[in-house]
């Protein structure tokens, strides 16, 4: 698939020179993304819950200048409203300050949208939607601290990329974030028990992200907000898997916590992207049951 890694090494045909400052190269990826305009994206999120490995996948397109996009997210088996063996899909719109979900089920009428204020989520919507959207994934890298250069790789599509590995600080990322993501990253910095987030990133010769993987960790199932709310109280795609529904309850414990690996791929730069917002009458305002 586009965006997956192929050949690795530090030299070879078409290899890129080593960066003078790896941390600077990673931190600048968010700005390069905004300048690139649009792209297609794929997402994958995995975690352990009740002894079962859970995977959530998504795909869509984003407009980076506007900071918005659309994803179709495929939920794990066992979510509310799914038939045995079925993996339901949810349509998601990610815009500055809000997440919209359609076909959510679990008490929401068919054809209706649910709107969630992302700044009200304890995780800043980094996992609630079942995906770390590409804008947020890039903005997190503004908080990169320890970064090492790992050589080059070639994607399945033939693009040569530089590989980086390091740790970012959620608090630093929130301080450095663009205005349209700052509030939700501030929520994440308050809500996660671990503000240090390991990451791997692949960046092409134009400074654009091709792949980034974050390893989030928190204790007790889901991060708690300042008011004691859990991630997913707005009904996110990962709420059941992480916060107590879906596959058998709490995914973490008070000792080791739960690890969520979230990967975002970027490909098809320049592809047309259209985000059509729901009409006010199409937004459901009633009670929302958990997944």
From TrEMBL:
Gene3D superfamilies per record: 2.50.20.20
Superkingdom of the source species: Bacteria
Region span, Disordered: 1-48, 218-250
Residue stretches spanning the membrane: none
Biased composition (Low complexity): 28-48
Ranges of Gly residues composition bias in the record: 231-249
Protein name: Lipoprotein
Organism: Streptomyces abyssalis
């Amino acid at each position: 698939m586009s965006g997956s890694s192929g050949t690795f090494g530090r030299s070879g045909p078409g290899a890129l020179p080593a960066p003078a400052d790896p941390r600077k190269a990673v931190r600048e990826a968010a700005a390069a993304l905004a300048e690139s305009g649009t792209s297609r994206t794929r997402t994958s999120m995995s975690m352990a819950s009740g002894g079962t490995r859970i995977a959530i996948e998504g795909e869509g397109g984003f407009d980076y200048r506007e900071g918005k996009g659309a994803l179709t997210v495929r939920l794990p088996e066992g979510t509310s409203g799914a038939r045995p063996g079925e993996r339901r899909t949810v349509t998601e719109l990610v815009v500055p300050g809000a997440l919209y979900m359609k076909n959510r089920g679990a008490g929401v009428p068919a054809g209706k949208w649910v709107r969630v204020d992302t700044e009200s989520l304890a995780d800043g919507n980094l996992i609630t939607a079942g995906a770390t959207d590409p804008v947020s994934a890039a903005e997190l890298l503004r908080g990169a601290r320890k970064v090492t250069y790992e050589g080059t790789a070639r994607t399945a599509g033939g693009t040569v990329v530089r590989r980086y590995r390091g740790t970012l600080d959620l608090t630093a990322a929130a301080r450095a974030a663009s205005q349209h993501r700052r509030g939700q990253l501030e929520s994440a910095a308050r809500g996660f028990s671990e503000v240090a987030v390991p990451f791997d990133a692949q960046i092409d010769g134009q400074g654009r992200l091709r792949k980034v993987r974050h390893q989030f960790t928190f204790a007790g199932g889901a991060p708690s907000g300042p008011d004691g709310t859990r991630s997913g109280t707005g009904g996110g795609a990962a709420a059941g898997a992480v916060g107590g529904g879906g596959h058998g309850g709490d995914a973490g414990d008070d000792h080791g916590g739960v690890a969520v690996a979230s990967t975002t791929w970027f490909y098809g730069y320049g592809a047309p992207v259209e985000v059509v917002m729901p009409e006010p009458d199409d937004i459901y305002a009633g009670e929302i049951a958990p997944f």
